[in-house]
Write a structure and sequence with these properties.
Layout (H helix, E strand, L loop, with lengths): L3 H14 L20 E10 L9 E5 L9 E4 L4 E7 L7 E4 L23 E6 L5 E7 L3 H6 L3 E7 L8 E10 L13 H4 L8 E4 L6 E4 L4 E8 L6 E6 L3 E6 L2 E8 L3 E3 L4 E7 L6 E6 L6 E8 L28 E9 L3 E2 L14 E3 L2 E2 L14 E3 L4 E8 L5 E5 L4 E6 L7 E3 L1 E4 L4 E7 L4 E7 L2 H5 L3 E6 L1
Parallel strand pairs: 1-4, 3-8, 9-12, 11-19, 20-25, 21-23, 24-32
Antiparallel strand pairs: 1-2, 4-6, 5-7, 7-8, 9-10, 12-17, 13-16, 13-18, 14-15, 14-17, 18-19, 20-22, 25-30, 26-29, 26-31, 27-28, 27-30, 31-32
Bound molecules: copper (II) ion.
Copper (II) ion (CU) binds next to loops.
């Protein structure tokens, strides 16, 4: 952790450089050692949603009265971010999907100490992979994500792909009353089922935003579900769309987008060929019986005269090949919580409710000092493993493994086109097989990204030694 002395030196240097609370990407080049790409001030803030929410909501953000930013990184270049905690409670940042050293993964008690109020922490790593990722708090996660400490990461490719425009969509529901106060974030009987859904649907913290794009252009649309509960079912109406990447990783063969399920923590990059001048494209969620457009794109301006033939695949990320022949199989049963609760009641996010379990063990909260807290699986460095995720519950669970991409291989219930991911939807009564190479040391969290499920027992971790 950065010492207070070093921190003061850093902030003094920042002041001299005339940088505000949020530093634009690369603006700090060559000014400081170490170079800081961002300074994020986690703080209490206000956000006026408008519409049916009459008063500003008391949110958390990384900058004053502004939404949590998109964080930009450059593939293969060192990234540094100073987190300053101005909240009345501890926090951390998890870089969801980014492959990095365990100490930078942002999981309190497992990979780092919590960053206490008034303290700071320097995150520093070099993203190997380009694509669309997710940054969010990992402390008191249900509350801190619901209040706004969650945003997109865009890791730019070494060679910029040829799109006419790049649009980022961060899908999040808010649980708000008309007076701007927050509703209950965990309703026990709902947490024991699909979760507590939000009542205000937003994209980039706005209701049904409209974007403008040139007619007949190729527009890359990055979609992140930062919501902690809702599994979206997305379609594109008014134009054809193709899938480019899942969880940041280009898929093997670009294919037409149909109705795509995207759960909490998951990302999808698509490309849309925009229609003629004056026409609109809608991206619609139809996961409920009352569909709504999450965003629209209006064609306006000069035609770019693009065709599908102009589309080129994204460059692949440098993922090591898998030795499936020699892979050891580990089975993980995701079930209702009937087993042992390994929650040691540290005063920060411990849940009094336990509804879920992984392999009959329910962890709602982590304390590595506990003699009873054991890894769900102990793995050997550089070996390839097949994980069987078996869901024996009536709910769908988006299972996220920190620190690695796994290859989603197959399901016992549906056809899966193999692809790389860090979060996989496991449907009721489904078993899916994923494979990965355990090529980084450390304790890596594995949990359901429906955060009420995580908080009430569906959490584990693997140890790579
Ligand atoms: Cu779940």
């Amino acid at each position: 952790m950065l010492s207070r002395r070093k921190f003061l030196a850093a902030s003094g240097a920042l002041g001299a450089a005339g940088i505000g609370s949020l530093v634009a990407p690369n603006a700090m080049s060559n000014l400081l050692t170490p170079k800081l790409n961002y300074v994020l001030n986690a703080q209490q803030s206000k956000w006026h949603f408008g519409g049916k929410i009459k008063s500003p909501a008391d949110i958390f953000s990384y900058q004053k009265n502004t939404q949590t930013p998109i964080i930009y990184m450059q593939q293969g270049e060192q990234f540094s971010c100073l987190l300053k905690n101005q909240l009345p409670e501890p926090t951390t940042i998890h870089w969801h999907g980014i492959r990095l050293a365990n100490a930078m993964d942002g999981v309190p008690f497992l990979t780092q100490d919590p960053v206490y109020p008034g303290d700071e922490f320097l995150y520093q790593f070099t993203p190997k992979d380009a694509g669309t990722y997710f940054h969010h708090s990992h402390f008191n996660s249900l509350t801190q994500l619901n209040r706004g400490l969650a945003g997109m990461i865009i890791v730019k490719e070494k060679q910029q792909p040829d799109f006419d425009q790049d649009i980022a969509l961060n899908l999040c529901d808010w649980r708000l009353n008309a007076d701007g106060s927050f509703q209950e974030l965990l309703i026990p009987k709902k947490a024991a089922r699909a979760g507590t859904f939000g009542n205000l649907h937003t994209t980039n913290w706005q209701v049904e935003p409209e974007f403008i794009a040139k007619p007949n252009s190729l527009v890359r649309v990055r979609i992140l579900v930062s919501d902690v509960t809702r599994i979206f079912k997305l379609t594109v109406n008014g134009a054809k769309a193709k899938i480019l990447a899942i969880d940041g990783n280009p898929i093997d063969e670009i294919r037409d987008m149909q109705r795509e399920w995207i759960g909490p923590g998951m990302r999808m990059d698509i490309v849309i060929l925009t229609p003629d001048e004056g026409q609109s494209v809608e991206i619609v969620n139809s996961s409920t019986n009352k569909p709504w457009p999450v965003a629209s794109i209006l064609s306006k301006g000069q035609s770019q005269k693009r065709q599908w033939g102009d589309l080129k695949p994204l460059p692949k990320n440098p993922i090591e090949p898998l030795d499936l022949q020699g892979a050891e199989i580990h089975r993980f049963n995701f079930s209702a919580g009937l087993g042992v609760q390994e929650d040691l009641g540290i005063n920060c996010a411990a849940s009094e409710y336990i509804f879920w379990a992984i392999n009959k063990t329910s962890i709602g909260h982590l304390d590595p000092m506990s003699p009873t807290l054991r890894p769900t699986a102990a793995l050997k460095l550089n070996k390839t493993y097949i994980f069987e995720f078996a869901n024996v519950t009536p709910q769908t669970h988006p299972i996220h493994l920190h620190g690695f991409f796994f290859r989603v291989l197959e399901s016992n219930r549906r056809t899966i086109i193999p692809h790389w991911a860090d979060t996989a939807l496991v449907k009721p009564d489904e078993t899916i097989r994923v494979a990965f190479k355990a090529n980084v040391l450390g304790n890596w969290l594995m949990h359901c990204h429906i955060l009420e499920h995580q908080k009430t027992g569906m959490t584990g971790f693997i140890n790579v030694s």
